[in-house]
């Protein structure tokens, strides 16, 4: 704990397209990364197109501060962004509070002209603890005004901390917060808070319900394993449902509660989903996805063509897993479209540092936006020395991959493009096997890199090498130094001129014996200087 703490804490052009469609899991990737010098790494012949855009860091920095909103987004720049030599590694475009510890994004929403982001925040130091709901508002999801915390632990049922939760809009359009409170004896309780003045677009003041706690752990559920209420959704008869994460023994599961008024909740006898032995499920997110197109759906949208996404934050390995599936309102059962991609044994939103994510429907641009917490690799001592810890990943728009129907496609929000500055690009460069290509002019601390790798006819590659297929691939075994039939290839970021230091972000393609293709997206931090640990790349 910080000393200052009081007692509280992705064949040639046409052929390539052809091979692309033949290879369901071979996806072109785009990445937004932070870098010092940028190189393209290749262990086999490839064609690439690269575009590097250097963000205009000094023109439009992320405006985060504890000042009243002036309408001038740059008004608080000097004390809001760390340009000082002693804090050169704070990000400029990712959300971070001005100081101290931050973890999960909570209850993101759009209300009366402003996007709101709440977040797990320790007002007293750069370590986890004393959790409150930090609160910031923005007109564009890029420039933020940090406000006073919206919720603090001051009642018996949340005195140990105001933990994660969600926002739901009532039918009259006012938002309510459902959150987990930590009581003194560590019991996890579910509670509600409502705006004190719903006409205030900033929603600065929240009032806790006199009926709190609305829910206590059910029989058979350990009091410390009952947390993070989801956004509520309405079913056909107008009643509401929420899901809450737990584990029974070691079986992770998504409990479902029912309510008519969002205040009085009753446990449904069936669970939404469970996986034996998966451990505690945190920060469940459950939302509908449109069958085609990038359009997002509001959380209560129903219909025969509507599928749902269930996301689980797995406490055991700290990754966010999801599955696309159907939801039966009567039995409450969620059934993944692709049984092999069932939650927790299938897809992750991200294969880097990304956890406790939360999505929301943006009614302005009719899209679903995903926020995720990017915890770093710094030690606690390093965080205390810096005076801050962690950041939120750039918000992403998510939509269903209609070609396959069992996974999501993600892209950074379009607003991010407004921050772009100088552009460096190289088109149709052929990479020799085993080569490293330096992208000249891409020197900078904040780069947006879009790269398209065009792979030769993979069936010929496999034939030429005459080797057996090489599935499965393990990112962590040998890192980017591994050499295989189909990889690795990718980027070297955070690299110095001598390439003594480098972080590889690389792809590897493999084919299983039953001829199924898989694309791995890995990062290798083994050649990263300790000084930069924790900086890496924030996607
Ligand atoms: N973080 C919160 C919990 C949640 C966990 C506490 C996930 O509510 O389960 O800070 O990171």
TrEMBL record:
* InterPro entries reported for this sequence: ConA-like_dom_sf, Fructan_Metab_Enzymes, Glyco_hydro_32, Glyco_hydro_32_AS, Glyco_hydro_32_N, Glyco_hydro_beta-prop_sf
Which residue ranges run through the membrane?
36-60
UniProt cross-references to Pfam families, sorted A to Z = Glyco_hydro_32N (PF00251)
Matches recorded under SMART domains: Glyco_32 (SM00640)
Tell whether RNA-binding is among the UniProt keywords. no
> Mind listing the GO biological process terms from this record?
carbohydrate metabolic process
Asked whether the keyword Hydrolase is assigned, the reply is: yes
Q: A single Gene Ontology molecular function, please?
A: hydrolase activity, hydrolyzing O-glycosyl compounds
Every copy of the Glycosyl hydrolase family 32 N-terminal domain together lies at 94-412
Keywords attached to this entry? Glycosidase, Hydrolase, Membrane, Transmembrane, Transmembrane helix
Family affiliation: Belongs to the glycosyl hydrolase 32 family.
Q: What is this protein called?
A: Glycosyl hydrolase family 32 N-terminal domain-containing protein
- Tell me which species this is from: Ceratodon purpureus (Fire moss)
Lineage, broadest ranks: Eukaryota, Viridiplantae, Streptophyta, Embryophyta, Bryophyta
